[in-house]
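Take a look at the protein record below with the fold in mind.
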Amino acid sequence: MRKNILVTVIMLLFFANPTYAENDSQKYVQISNSPQTEHDKIVIYEFFWYGCPHCFNIEPTIVKIESNLNQDTVLIKLPLALKESWVNHAKAFFSMQQMNIDNNLHSKIFEEIHINGNRLDTKSTLVDFIDSEGFDGSSFSKNFDSFGTEIRIKKANKLARQYQITSVPTIIINGKYLTSGSFVSSYEELYDVVNFLVEKERVNLR
C-alpha cells in the first residue's frame, strides 16, 4: 500500500495544478496554488459517492469528525458526479439538502445501498426510499430535476477539478491539505490526521 501511496504522491507532484507536496509521514499531501475557500471558518470538504464502498466504510469516521467540530470549523459534504452512473446519487444528496433532510437520511442511504443491497440508482427507487422514510417523495422528485440541483452538481464537480480529484473518498482541509483512507492504516488514524490538520491550520491562521 505504501508503494501505491508513493506513486500517487509522485504523480500529484509531477502533474497537478494545483501542486502537492508530500509530508514526511505520507499521511497527507500539502496543496499549493489551490482555490481558496469562501468561508470564515476552517473548511473540511468530504468528496464522496454513495455507491463507493470505501465512502461507506469511512462514514462512521465522518460522523465522528462532524460530531466533534469546534465552532471555528465546518464540514461540507460534496457528492461527485465523475461518471454518468454517479449523477443520480449526487442529485439525491442535493435534493435532500434543499429539503433540509440530508442530515436525517445521509447515513441511511449508505446503509440501504451497502447493507440492504438496494442500489438506489434510479429516480424512482430513490423517491420510493424517501417516501418509505416518512419524507415527501413528491418534493424530492421536484428537487431532483431542478435547476438548483443542477447548479450544485456543477459547482461540486468544478471544485473537484480544481483540486485534481479523480477518486473518492477524498478529504480537503481548508484548501491546503489532502488526505483519504488510502493514506492511513485505519479509519481511526484518519480521524486523528484530520484533527491534526485542522489544528495545524488553526495555528497557521492565528
In short: Strands lie at 19-22, 29-32, 42-48, 73-79, 170-173, 177-179. The chain has eight helices and six strands.
